[in-house]
């Protein structure tokens, strides 16, 4: 034993398990009188949010919720969704945020898989959740305690499905003295399910340490000031809102809640509440770009947006820049708590023309400061590819901002962590400045006549046509070439263009073999976060890669 190990032990004074619940306690203590939540007519300060969260924590504890208990929630972006992110981890339980667009069979499957003990659900989803709960009982014999939320801003129909009501439950319990968090920071804080494009979805289990560090990483990456006014355009059910419920608590900011992600509501909230930060998938930024100019009038503050969720088209980044919005491009997955890499903007980039800035900002970039490793490796040899911008490999992560693993799925966990890195499945290159650029998902590469075609490159070309609102490119079988690209396109309202015109446009910017052989003007299936579901399009195209 060396001298630095003698009588220098951990104790209650010098070591505390990292948990983002501590951010809530600090903001209530230091910024208790400042605004924390805005939702319609409702306003809560940080002291009030802390008290409401502590009352919910006490209520959950009275229901037997504790370490390792799963609390599922079916909520839009409301104050209650903020509060569950503070209360559930405070009693060392595990938060399972349900995707509000899933159907009853899949919801029942997920709640059974993660062994839901308590369900908190908004009245809007009453019929859906009644169906899911009936299936959960009939098929699995599981009956969670159900707490209904009757949101003041919801005016539609929807029946209660539980025996308890959220506000009454809070009123019936004195707040816990402290939102403490876990004894062990490795304890699970959340389980979030992947989209499950084939077979059953995987339950991504994350821990308190990672959530704490990524919440800090968000602020450091975005150079966020104290007291940001943050608009909830990103669903909080998606990767726990990329850890931003905890980031905003750390900074004493204001959560501006939004039940519906619609362009008019987004821009009205920005104007009325002075919103200066928001996060969204590319499609939501597209809504802002294509909104009538008069809807943006009166927004005089600098608005900073973060984009992820899919590789953003260059036209989107350029379009937001022309509006004066400052966009930061981040990259990540559910398995790394949402964003864990960023296209860090260097000072010299501001001297480049807009087209070059767009190219630079469109890359996936470099690891978050608190993520220990991100690189591009050959998945067979696990050797790093050269930084030549040409040699493709797979993006991989390692560090504290990586999941514990997949719930009840050791084989998938072992495969994901093979070689001591987390394998993303995204194919990319390292450019000479060490920034990473995705070329495609491994399953989205189109192999035509032996040549690899990046579907993202073709999509980028299509997005540069002024008539294109959304597009997706997949492979279709071809008797001569094996596969050729087919493009699905949605047009902007009131704009018309022919398939031949779009093909001609692509020929002007792409090598001939990369040009789509067919354009289909059809609705494009998307997830609730705006991510295009290419597996459905591959099935439509009867692609050879339709079965994943």
Characterization of the model:
With 548 residues, this protein is α/β, with parallel strands linked by helices. It folds into 3 domains: 193 residues, Rossmann fold; 181 residues, ANL, N-terminal domain (Rossmann fold); 95 residues, 2-Layer Sandwich (GMP Synthetase, Chain A, domain 3). The chain is built from 17 helices and 26 strands. The strands form 6 sheets. A 9-stranded mixed sheet has the order 2-1-11-10-12-13-14-15-16, with helices on both faces. It has a 5-stranded parallel sheet with strand order 4-3-5-6-7, with helices on both faces. A hairpin with a 2-residue loop joins strand 22 and strand 23. Helix 1 packs parallel to helix 9 and helix 12 crosses helix 13. The longest helix has 17 residues. The termini are far apart. The C terminus is likely disordered.
| Beta-strand proportion | 15-25%
Q: Report the helical percentage.
A: 25-40%
Name of the CATH architecture of the largest domain: 3-Layer(aba) Sandwich
Structural class: alpha/beta
Radius of gyration: 24 Å
Low-confidence stretches: 544-548
Give the termini distance in whole angstroms.
Answer: 54 Å
